[in-house]
Every structure is written in C-alpha cells, then in structure tokens.
Amino acid sequence: MGKLEEDSALQSLSSLRASGSRASVEEDCGDFGIRIDRNGTWYYQGSPIGRKPIVKLFSTVLNRREDGSYWLTTPVENGRIDVEDVPYTIVELTHSGEGTNQVIDFRTNLDVIVPLDSEHALRVETDSASGEPSPYVHTGKNLDARLVRSVFYHLVELATEHHAEDGKKFGVWSRNTFFPIGDPKEW
Known about the structure:
It is a single chain. The chain has helices at residues 3-19, 52-59, 149-158, and strands spanning 27-36, 42-44, 47-48, 62-64, 70-73, 77-83, 88-96, 103-108, 113-115, 122-126, 133-140, 143-147, 160-164, 167-174, 177-180. With 187 residues, it is an alpha+beta fold. A six-stranded mixed sheet has the order 3-2-1-6-5-4. The protein has a six-stranded mixed sheet with strand order 9-8-7-12-11-10. A hairpin with a 6-residue loop joins strand 7 and strand 8. Helix 1 packs parallel to helix 2. The radius of gyration is 19 Å and the shape is elongated.
C-alpha cells in the first residue's frame, strides 16, 4: 500500500469513526486484499503495510464471525480479509505479585494491553505431529493473539503446580484464576 493510499484509507476510517454514525446496512465489498500473516504483519495486495498507525486503525474495525472468517467493518462498508493464524501476536509480558494474587498482563504487537483474566483466557494448543505448543490469549471481540516464543518461555518460568479437582495441573495464576499451560514433559 502506497503512502497516498494509506493516507486516504486512514482519513476515511478516521472520519467514519469520528462521526459516530452507523449505517443500517453495510455494503459488502468482498475481499479487501488485506492479509495478516502468522507473525501479525498486515499486507495489502501482497505488500506490507508499513505504517503502524494505519494498522492500529484497521484493527479497531476488525471482527471475526461465527464461521471463522475475518472482516473489516465500518459503518458504511464491510470486507473480508485473510488471517493466517490469529490477527495479533503477544510480544511482551509483565507481572506482579505472587501465587493466586499474581497479576499478568500482555502487550500485543499493536501496543494493546490485554489482562490475563477470566474474560481474556489463555489456551495452549499442541500440534499433534510436532508436539509443539501454541499458546493463545483471547483479546476480546471474538479475536485472539498468539504468544511469541520468548513470551511463552517467560510464562513457563512463572508457572507452578496446582492441585485441581481433576488432578495436578501445571500453569500460571493471574487475578485469582489458574490457567493450565500443559505438561512441559510432552513438549
């Protein structure tokens, strides 16, 4: 996306958001030609979108439908985009406190802070072929972020065992909620 196209798109989205109006029917514009790769990089027509402010603006109108498709929805138009895995990556973890009182927050690649709590739960999927864990956190609006490897290692350093009703679990506490992360022996 060229700078002139980025400026035009940014100005249009800004004015639509500033108006606060919402059309009763959004026009389906089909595929917008936007793709988000596994690392959270946004592309337009195959070229990376280099300006972080425009990516941040697009992310404010991003949503995921029940069928798993991703859409950019403004008050007047609606278009599909391709997402390789999930739209965001978690690039930093901060924590304070200990035990059940521990508080963990994540920062996305777009500088959004996501608290680890019951509304923003952590889940770890394990690839059946490689055994590699893929940790994700819910960011809201039916969207998820994948923890980059260094953040997952940091999370593992904070993990502890917890004796739950269904057995011993390995995971982390945050805001009085325990989040299992799996068995390190299986990774």
